């Protein structure tokens, strides 16, 4: 059974069809690149999986669970986390505190107890220790007590990954993580994604326009155009597909 199985998913906003019968699957431990021109529907698919958007039709299952019946607030507990194209960090908080925020969804203290600080010392210490371990894994531990504000963009991208990992996911959605990075930072990010996949036993769904990065780290690639799948398979096969070339270059296949 595939870890994530998307079958005939369609999403319409009034008369606009954002997804049109999209189907693909991701196995445990795979890195899957989801590519396509702007407006192809990639982020819409992300938002269906993370329950921000409701599918008009179709089915999405995650480890046998009907994902479309799971409320958005339960996604993290199910084992799904995501990063965003536009950073959503807390600039005045330290890197350690930012990562700890990501771990509260899987903590044992609960929101009410944390708010009222009722016997949460042990849980908070465990959360702090785990956040520190994640910062070390992402080579950010030397900045643990530094505020997020003012740090280089590539550093903040790694911080957001650390915060997502604090939720202990089995499946990580990454929305254009290379956006705004330099060439050297993109190379570093590629290595980071591969290493966290191996270290934390993750599957990764990656939306990205940086084709060299996608083709270099993905086990499988799904190419989209106008809400539909036009190719799926190993990177080399998708990269040479005439419909994919036409979608990106505007040529007639």
TrEMBL record:
Organism, scientific name: freshwater metagenome
Record's keyword terms, sorted: ATP-binding, Nucleotide-binding, Transport
Transmembrane regions: none
Database matches in Pfam families: ABC_tran (PF00005), BCA_ABC_TP_C (PF12399)
Coiled coil (UniProt feature): none
Lineage: unclassified sequences, metagenomes, ecological metagenomes
Protein name: Unannotated protein
Domain ABC transporter: 4-251
PROSITE patterns according to UniProt: ABC_TRANSPORTER_2
The keyword Nucleotide-binding belongs to this UniProt entry's keyword annotation: yes
Entry GO CC: plasma membrane
MF terms in GO: ATP binding; ATP hydrolysis activity
